[in-house]
Amino acid sequence: MEKEYISSYNRNYLKIKPQGELQGKLRYQYQILTGKKLDGILGADFHIHNGESGLYYDITGKVNLPTLFSKKKISLNFMNCFISSLETALWSLEQYLLDERNLMLQPEYLYVDMDNMQNQSSPEGSLYFVYCPYFTETEERDVEPLFTFLLEKAEEEDAELMDAIFNLYAAWENHGEQFRGESLLHAWPMETSSGTEEAGVRDATGVKGDKGNKEREKLSGENTYAMVREENMHYEEKADRKTYGNGAEKEDRMLYGNDEVKEERKLYGNGRQNRRVLTLTRFPAIIGRKPEYADLVINEPSVDSMHVKILEEDGHIYMEDMNAAAGTFKNGIQLRPYERVELLREDEVKFGKLEFTYR
Questions:
Q1: What residue spans define the domains of the chain?
Q2: Helix, strand, or coil (residue 71)
Q3: 74-125 residue pLDDT tens
Protein backbone atom coordinates (compact mmCIF):
# COMPACT_ATOMS: atom_id res chain seq x y z
CA MET A 1 0.00 0.00 0.00
CA GLU A 2 1.42 3.36 -1.05
CA LYS A 3 1.51 6.01 1.65
CA GLU A 4 3.21 9.32 2.38
CA TYR A 5 3.06 12.09 4.96
CA ILE A 6 2.12 15.63 3.98
CA SER A 7 2.03 19.00 5.78
CA SER A 8 -0.36 21.65 4.50
CA TYR A 9 -1.73 24.82 6.12
CA ASN A 10 -0.57 23.82 9.62
CA ARG A 11 -2.17 20.40 9.33
CA ASN A 12 -0.48 17.02 8.97
CA TYR A 13 -1.91 14.26 6.81
CA LEU A 14 -1.35 10.60 6.07
CA LYS A 15 -1.97 10.15 2.36
CA ILE A 16 -2.91 6.70 1.06
CA LYS A 17 -3.46 5.81 -2.57
CA PRO A 18 -7.04 4.53 -3.03
CA GLN A 19 -7.51 0.78 -3.36
CA GLY A 20 -9.77 -0.86 -5.93
CA GLU A 21 -11.42 0.59 -9.01
CA LEU A 22 -13.25 3.88 -8.50
CA GLN A 23 -15.33 3.33 -11.67
CA GLY A 24 -15.83 7.03 -12.32
CA LYS A 25 -17.28 7.83 -8.92
CA LEU A 26 -16.61 7.17 -5.25
CA ARG A 27 -17.70 3.71 -4.25
CA TYR A 28 -19.80 3.13 -1.14
CA GLN A 29 -16.97 2.67 1.39
CA TYR A 30 -15.28 5.88 0.24
CA GLN A 31 -18.53 7.80 0.55
CA ILE A 32 -19.07 6.63 4.12
CA LEU A 33 -15.48 7.23 5.23
CA THR A 34 -15.33 10.76 3.80
CA GLY A 35 -18.93 11.76 4.54
CA LYS A 36 -19.64 10.35 7.99
CA LYS A 37 -18.06 10.73 11.42
CA LEU A 38 -17.14 7.25 12.57
CA ASP A 39 -16.24 6.84 16.23
CA GLY A 40 -12.79 5.37 16.66
CA ILE A 41 -11.90 5.83 12.96
CA LEU A 42 -9.60 8.53 11.58
CA GLY A 43 -11.56 10.88 9.37
CA ALA A 44 -10.41 11.25 5.76
CA ASP A 45 -10.99 13.41 2.70
CA PHE A 46 -10.70 12.33 -0.92
CA HIS A 47 -8.72 14.62 -3.24
CA ILE A 48 -7.48 14.52 -6.81
CA HIS A 49 -4.36 16.59 -7.53
CA ASN A 50 -2.60 16.64 -10.89
CA GLY A 51 -4.55 13.59 -11.93
CA GLU A 52 -3.50 11.62 -8.84
CA SER A 53 -6.15 10.64 -6.30
CA GLY A 54 -5.56 10.11 -2.62
CA LEU A 55 -7.20 9.65 0.76
CA TYR A 56 -5.97 12.28 3.22
CA TYR A 57 -6.27 11.29 6.88
CA ASP A 58 -5.85 14.18 9.31
CA ILE A 59 -3.24 13.11 11.88
CA THR A 60 -2.58 16.56 13.34
CA GLY A 61 -1.91 16.32 17.08
CA LYS A 62 -1.74 12.54 16.93
CA VAL A 63 1.15 10.08 17.12
CA ASN A 64 1.26 6.48 16.00
CA LEU A 65 2.14 3.65 18.36
CA PRO A 66 5.79 3.23 17.26
CA THR A 67 6.34 6.91 18.08
CA LEU A 68 4.43 6.85 21.37
CA PHE A 69 6.25 3.75 22.57
CA SER A 70 9.65 4.52 21.12
CA LYS A 71 10.98 4.54 24.69
CA LYS A 72 7.99 3.81 26.93
CA LYS A 73 6.61 0.39 27.73
CA ILE A 74 3.08 -0.77 27.03
CA SER A 75 1.04 -1.19 30.20
CA LEU A 76 -2.04 -3.19 31.06
CA ASN A 77 -4.01 0.04 31.22
CA PHE A 78 -3.12 0.89 27.63
CA MET A 79 -4.07 -2.57 26.41
CA ASN A 80 -7.50 -2.22 27.99
CA CYS A 81 -7.88 1.14 26.24
CA PHE A 82 -6.77 -0.47 22.98
CA ILE A 83 -9.34 -3.26 23.22
CA SER A 84 -12.08 -0.82 24.22
CA SER A 85 -11.20 1.50 21.31
CA LEU A 86 -11.16 -1.43 18.90
CA GLU A 87 -14.63 -2.42 20.07
CA THR A 88 -15.80 1.12 19.35
CA ALA A 89 -14.27 1.15 15.87
CA LEU A 90 -15.79 -2.22 14.98
CA TRP A 91 -19.20 -1.06 16.17
CA SER A 92 -18.93 2.03 13.93
CA LEU A 93 -18.09 -0.12 10.91
CA GLU A 94 -20.96 -2.45 11.63
CA GLN A 95 -23.48 0.41 11.60
CA TYR A 96 -22.64 1.17 7.97
CA LEU A 97 -21.98 -2.41 6.84
CA LEU A 98 -18.30 -1.69 6.23
CA ASP A 99 -15.93 -4.63 5.84
CA GLU A 100 -13.82 -4.74 9.01
CA ARG A 101 -11.03 -6.54 7.16
CA ASN A 102 -10.11 -3.11 5.76
CA LEU A 103 -9.33 -1.88 9.28
CA MET A 104 -5.56 -1.49 9.39
CA LEU A 105 -4.12 -3.10 12.52
CA GLN A 106 -0.43 -2.46 11.92
CA PRO A 107 1.11 -0.27 14.67
CA GLU A 108 2.00 2.57 12.29
CA TYR A 109 -1.70 2.97 11.44
CA LEU A 110 -2.89 3.22 15.06
CA TYR A 111 -2.94 6.79 16.35
CA VAL A 112 -3.28 8.30 19.82
CA ASP A 113 -4.69 11.82 20.18
CA MET A 114 -2.09 13.66 22.26
CA ASP A 115 -4.15 16.87 22.45
CA ASN A 116 -6.94 15.15 24.40
CA MET A 117 -4.74 13.21 26.79
CA GLN A 118 -4.73 15.81 29.55
CA ASN A 119 -8.54 16.05 29.45
CA GLN A 120 -9.21 12.32 29.63
CA SER A 121 -9.41 10.06 32.64
CA SER A 122 -7.28 7.64 30.64
CA PRO A 123 -3.71 8.86 30.26
CA GLU A 124 -3.56 7.62 26.69
CA GLY A 125 -6.38 9.82 25.42
CA SER A 126 -8.22 8.63 22.34
CA LEU A 127 -7.05 5.81 20.09
CA TYR A 128 -7.97 5.94 16.39
CA PHE A 129 -7.76 3.35 13.62
CA VAL A 130 -7.14 3.85 9.90
CA TYR A 131 -9.82 2.38 7.66
CA CYS A 132 -8.66 1.80 4.07
CA PRO A 133 -11.64 1.10 1.78
CA TYR A 134 -11.38 -2.00 -0.40
CA PHE A 135 -7.88 -2.78 0.85
CA THR A 136 -8.55 -6.53 0.83
CA GLU A 137 -9.50 -6.42 -2.85
CA THR A 138 -5.82 -6.05 -3.73
CA GLU A 139 -3.88 -7.06 -0.60
CA GLU A 140 -4.14 -9.22 2.51
CA ARG A 141 -4.20 -7.63 5.93
CA ASP A 142 -1.11 -8.55 7.92
CA VAL A 143 -1.76 -8.68 11.66
CA GLU A 144 1.53 -10.27 12.69
CA PRO A 145 3.40 -6.90 13.00
CA LEU A 146 0.90 -5.86 15.67
CA PHE A 147 1.58 -8.90 17.85
CA THR A 148 5.33 -8.58 17.33
CA PHE A 149 5.12 -4.95 18.43
CA LEU A 150 3.02 -5.73 21.51
CA LEU A 151 5.34 -8.51 22.64
CA GLU A 152 8.44 -6.36 22.15
CA LYS A 153 7.06 -3.26 23.86
CA ALA A 154 4.98 -4.75 26.69
CA GLU A 155 6.18 -4.44 30.27
CA GLU A 156 7.77 -7.85 30.73
CA GLU A 157 7.56 -7.75 34.52
CA ASP A 158 3.77 -7.62 34.38
CA ALA A 159 2.94 -11.33 34.18
CA GLU A 160 -0.79 -10.69 33.86
CA LEU A 161 -0.22 -8.41 30.89
CA MET A 162 2.15 -10.81 29.14
CA ASP A 163 -0.24 -13.73 29.62
CA ALA A 164 -3.07 -11.67 28.09
CA ILE A 165 -0.99 -10.70 25.04
CA PHE A 166 0.10 -14.30 24.50
CA ASN A 167 -3.57 -15.21 24.67
CA LEU A 168 -4.22 -12.80 21.77
CA TYR A 169 -1.29 -14.25 19.86
CA ALA A 170 -2.60 -17.79 20.31
CA ALA A 171 -6.03 -16.71 19.06
CA TRP A 172 -4.44 -15.27 15.94
CA GLU A 173 -2.52 -18.47 15.28
CA ASN A 174 -5.63 -20.60 15.77
CA HIS A 175 -7.84 -18.55 13.48
CA GLY A 176 -5.30 -18.17 10.68
CA GLU A 177 -6.80 -16.41 7.64
CA GLN A 178 -10.17 -16.26 9.39
CA PHE A 179 -8.81 -13.95 12.08
CA ARG A 180 -10.89 -10.80 12.53
CA GLY A 181 -10.86 -7.82 14.83
CA GLU A 182 -13.74 -9.38 16.70
CA SER A 183 -11.41 -12.27 17.50
CA LEU A 184 -9.26 -9.88 19.54
CA LEU A 185 -12.25 -8.83 21.61
CA HIS A 186 -13.20 -12.40 22.45
CA ALA A 187 -9.60 -13.42 23.15
CA TRP A 188 -8.91 -10.56 25.56
CA PRO A 189 -9.33 -12.21 28.98
CA MET A 190 -10.09 -9.10 31.02
CA GLU A 191 -12.97 -6.78 31.69
CA THR A 192 -12.82 -3.46 29.86
CA SER A 193 -16.04 -1.93 31.18
CA SER A 194 -15.65 1.71 30.27
CA GLY A 195 -15.62 4.34 32.96
CA THR A 196 -15.32 2.02 35.95
CA GLU A 197 -13.18 3.33 38.76
CA GLU A 198 -11.99 -0.17 39.53
CA ALA A 199 -10.48 -0.70 36.11
CA GLY A 200 -9.23 2.83 35.70
CA VAL A 201 -10.38 2.78 32.08
CA ARG A 202 -12.30 5.65 30.56
CA ASP A 203 -15.42 5.34 28.43
CA ALA A 204 -13.61 5.38 25.11
CA THR A 205 -16.79 6.28 23.21
CA GLY A 206 -19.83 5.11 24.74
CA VAL A 207 -19.72 1.80 22.93
CA LYS A 208 -23.08 0.56 21.86
CA GLY A 209 -24.08 -3.03 21.30
CA ASP A 210 -24.29 -6.28 23.23
CA LYS A 211 -21.18 -7.12 25.22
CA GLY A 212 -22.80 -9.90 27.19
CA ASN A 213 -21.27 -12.71 25.18
CA LYS A 214 -17.73 -11.73 26.15
CA GLU A 215 -16.42 -13.58 29.16
CA ARG A 216 -13.74 -11.52 30.83
CA GLU A 217 -12.26 -11.14 34.26
CA LYS A 218 -12.82 -7.90 36.08
CA LEU A 219 -9.71 -5.88 36.88
CA SER A 220 -9.13 -4.47 40.33
CA GLY A 221 -7.78 -0.98 40.82
CA GLU A 222 -4.58 -2.42 42.24
CA ASN A 223 -3.81 -4.18 38.97
CA THR A 224 -4.37 -1.13 36.82
CA TYR A 225 -2.29 2.01 36.89
CA ALA A 226 -1.89 5.12 34.82
CA MET A 227 0.73 5.02 32.10
CA VAL A 228 1.75 8.56 32.94
CA ARG A 229 3.45 7.08 36.00
CA GLU A 230 5.02 4.21 34.09
CA GLU A 231 8.12 5.67 32.55
CA ASN A 232 10.20 2.53 32.11
CA MET A 233 12.76 4.66 30.37
CA HIS A 234 16.38 3.83 29.79
CA TYR A 235 17.13 7.44 30.63
CA GLU A 236 17.48 9.38 33.84
CA GLU A 237 14.73 9.77 36.43
CA LYS A 238 12.34 12.67 35.97
CA ALA A 239 13.95 14.47 38.87
CA ASP A 240 17.15 14.70 36.85
CA ARG A 241 15.48 16.29 33.86
CA LYS A 242 15.56 20.00 33.29
CA THR A 243 12.53 21.94 32.21
CA TYR A 244 13.09 24.96 30.02
CA GLY A 245 10.51 27.61 30.79
CA ASN A 246 9.83 30.81 28.90
CA GLY A 247 13.07 32.71 28.53
CA ALA A 248 14.80 30.78 31.30
CA GLU A 249 18.54 30.57 30.85
CA LYS A 250 19.38 27.02 31.80
CA GLU A 251 21.84 24.48 30.56
CA ASP A 252 21.03 20.82 30.97
CA ARG A 253 23.23 17.76 30.97
CA MET A 254 21.38 14.46 30.73
CA LEU A 255 22.93 12.12 33.27
CA TYR A 256 23.46 8.44 32.61
CA GLY A 257 25.32 6.89 35.48
CA ASN A 258 29.03 6.67 34.85
CA ASP A 259 28.80 6.84 31.05
CA GLU A 260 31.61 8.91 29.61
CA VAL A 261 30.72 11.58 27.08
CA LYS A 262 33.18 11.95 24.23
CA GLU A 263 31.69 15.01 22.62
CA GLU A 264 29.06 17.53 23.62
CA ARG A 265 26.44 18.58 21.15
CA LYS A 266 24.16 21.46 21.98
CA LEU A 267 21.18 23.39 20.70
CA TYR A 268 21.49 27.09 21.55
CA GLY A 269 18.32 29.14 21.72
CA ASN A 270 18.13 32.18 19.43
CA GLY A 271 16.67 35.53 20.48
CA ARG A 272 16.07 37.30 23.76
CA GLN A 273 12.98 35.23 24.53
CA ASN A 274 14.72 31.91 23.99
CA ARG A 275 17.94 31.64 25.95
CA ARG A 276 17.65 27.91 26.45
CA VAL A 277 20.63 25.63 25.92
CA LEU A 278 19.87 21.94 25.31
CA THR A 279 22.82 19.60 25.82
CA LEU A 280 22.64 16.23 24.06
CA THR A 281 24.83 13.49 25.44
CA ARG A 282 22.84 10.30 24.83
CA PHE A 283 20.74 9.23 21.89
CA PRO A 284 18.00 8.94 20.93
CA ALA A 285 16.70 11.99 22.80
CA ILE A 286 13.12 13.22 22.52
CA ILE A 287 12.41 16.95 22.83
CA GLY A 288 8.86 17.92 23.74
CA ARG A 289 6.47 19.63 26.14
CA LYS A 290 5.31 16.68 28.28
CA PRO A 291 7.78 15.30 30.84
CA GLU A 292 6.03 11.92 30.68
CA TYR A 293 7.27 11.43 27.14
CA ALA A 294 10.18 13.81 26.53
CA ASP A 295 13.79 13.60 27.69
CA LEU A 296 14.32 17.34 27.28
CA VAL A 297 11.22 19.28 28.28
CA ILE A 298 10.39 22.74 26.91
CA ASN A 299 7.52 24.68 28.49
CA GLU A 300 6.25 26.35 25.34
CA PRO A 301 2.68 25.95 23.98
CA SER A 302 3.84 25.73 20.37
CA VAL A 303 6.04 22.73 21.17
CA ASP A 304 4.26 19.38 20.89
CA SER A 305 4.17 16.77 23.66
CA MET A 306 6.64 14.75 21.58
CA HIS A 307 8.00 17.19 19.03
CA VAL A 308 11.29 15.92 17.65
CA LYS A 309 13.72 13.07 18.10
CA ILE A 310 17.50 13.51 17.92
CA LEU A 311 19.42 10.39 16.88
CA GLU A 312 23.00 9.35 16.26
CA GLU A 313 23.93 6.84 13.57
CA ASP A 314 27.47 6.05 12.41
CA GLY A 315 28.79 9.22 13.97
CA HIS A 316 26.19 11.42 12.27
CA ILE A 317 23.43 13.32 14.08
CA TYR A 318 19.89 13.26 12.71
CA MET A 319 16.69 15.10 13.56
CA GLU A 320 13.34 13.33 13.06
CA ASP A 321 9.99 15.10 13.20
CA MET A 322 7.43 13.32 15.38
CA ASN A 323 4.33 14.59 13.57
CA ALA A 324 4.55 17.93 15.36
CA ALA A 325 1.49 20.09 14.73
CA ALA A 326 3.44 23.36 14.72
CA GLY A 327 6.14 21.88 12.53
CA THR A 328 9.85 21.14 12.68
CA PHE A 329 12.16 23.21 10.49
CA LYS A 330 15.77 22.98 9.37
CA ASN A 331 17.27 26.10 7.82
CA GLY A 332 13.81 27.46 7.07
CA ILE A 333 12.49 24.31 5.37
CA GLN A 334 9.71 22.40 7.12
CA LEU A 335 10.12 18.68 7.55
CA ARG A 336 7.33 16.37 6.51
CA PRO A 337 5.77 14.32 9.33
CA TYR A 338 8.25 11.66 10.45
CA GLU A 339 10.89 12.93 8.03
CA ARG A 340 14.51 12.50 9.14
CA VAL A 341 17.35 14.85 8.13
CA GLU A 342 20.99 15.12 9.12
CA LEU A 343 22.06 17.91 11.46
CA LEU A 344 25.29 19.76 10.71
CA ARG A 345 27.11 22.34 12.77
CA GLU A 346 25.54 25.82 12.58
CA ASP A 347 22.26 24.47 11.22
CA GLU A 348 19.28 26.60 12.25
CA VAL A 349 16.36 24.53 13.56
CA LYS A 350 12.91 25.53 14.73
CA PHE A 351 10.47 23.70 17.00
CA GLY A 352 7.11 25.45 16.92
CA LYS A 353 7.98 29.10 17.57
CA LEU A 354 11.39 28.44 19.12
CA GLU A 355 14.57 28.71 17.08
CA PHE A 356 17.90 27.07 17.91
CA THR A 357 21.37 26.77 16.43
CA TYR A 358 23.04 23.38 16.46
CA ARG A 359 26.71 23.45 17.46
A1: 62-229, 238-358
A2: coil
A3: 999 999 999 999 999 999 999 999 999 999 999 999 999 876 655 544 444 4
Inter-CA distances, 102 with 3, 97, 164, 177, Å: 15, 12, 25, 14
Interhelix angle for 144-153 vs 159-175, to 10°? 170
Report the candidate in 271, 337, 343 with the shortest Cα–Cα distance to residue 313. 343
Classified as helix, coil or strand, 19 is coil
pLDDT digits (tens, 9 = 90+) for 278-330: 999 889 999 999 888 899 999 999 999 999 999 999 999 999 999 998 899 99
- Tell me the torsion sign for CA atoms 303, 306, 307, 308: positive
Task: Quickly name the fold that domain 238-358 has.
Answer: Tumour Suppressor Smad4 (2.60.200)
Helix (H) or strand (E) holding 34: helix 28-35
The whole-angstrom separation of Cα 153 and Cα 155 is 7
